[in-house]
Amino acid sequence: LTALRCTDTVQTEHQGQALSCVRGRLKNEDRETVLFPGEIPPDLPGEEDWRSGRFRFHDFAPRRLRRRARGQHVRLDQAIEFLLGDKLE
Q1: Across the beta sheet with 17-25, what order do the strands follow?
Q2: Residue 77: its pLDDT value, please?
Q3: What are the tens digits of pLDDT across the range 15-70?
Q4: Within a 13 Å sphere around the CA of 42, how many CA atoms are in the beta-carbon half?
Q5: DSSP classification of residue 85
Q6: pLDDT digits over 72-85, tens only?
Q7: CA geometry: angle at 36 spanning 33 and 41, to 5°?
Q8: How deeply is 57 buried, as exposed, middle or buried, from its count of CB atoms within 10 A (0-12, 13-18, 19+)?
Q9: In the structure, how many helices (H) and strands (E) does the chain have?
Q10: How far, in whole angstroms, is CA 52 from its chain's centroid?
Q11: How far apart are CA 38 and CA 58, in angstroms?
Q12: CA–CA separation, 32 vs 39, rounded Å?
């Protein structure tokens, strides 16, 4: 199992307001972009919200690695150890 980190969290300013955004390379594009993912709704969205197209999720491509460079990952190894470690002893 593996997981690659495809984006970075960055701060940007829009109309004088600081926003937390993600920066990465969208799948099938050759350039990096910065996107504001939106606010987290206070309540779990209902079924109609999911079907309405209210939410759009973008696919990000893995970072391009320099030769002999190691990629960042999201510590999935620690999650697996936590979940399965005692079963493998």
Answers
A1: 7-14, 17-25, 32-35
A2: 78
A3: 999 999 999 999 988 899 999 988 888 899 999 988 998 888 889 998 777 776 66
A4: 0
A5: G
A6: 667 777 888 888 88
A7: 150
A8: exposed
A9: 2, 3
A10: 22
A11: 13
A12: 22
Task: Identify residue 63 by its one-letter amino acid code.
Answer: R
Residue 38 is predicted with a pLDDT of 86
- Given a contact cutoff of 8 angstroms between Cβ atoms, the answer to whether 59 and 7 are in contact is no
Q: Distance between CA 40 and CA 55 in Å, rounded?
A: 11
Residue 87 to residue 89: CA distance in whole angstroms: 6
Q: Is the dihedral of CA 20, 25, 26, 29 positive or negative?
A: positive
Render 8-19 in DSSP notation, one character per residue: EEEEEEETTEEE
Residue 30: half-sphere exposure toward Cβ, Cα within 13 Å: 0
Q: Is the pLDDT of residue 1 over 70?
A: no
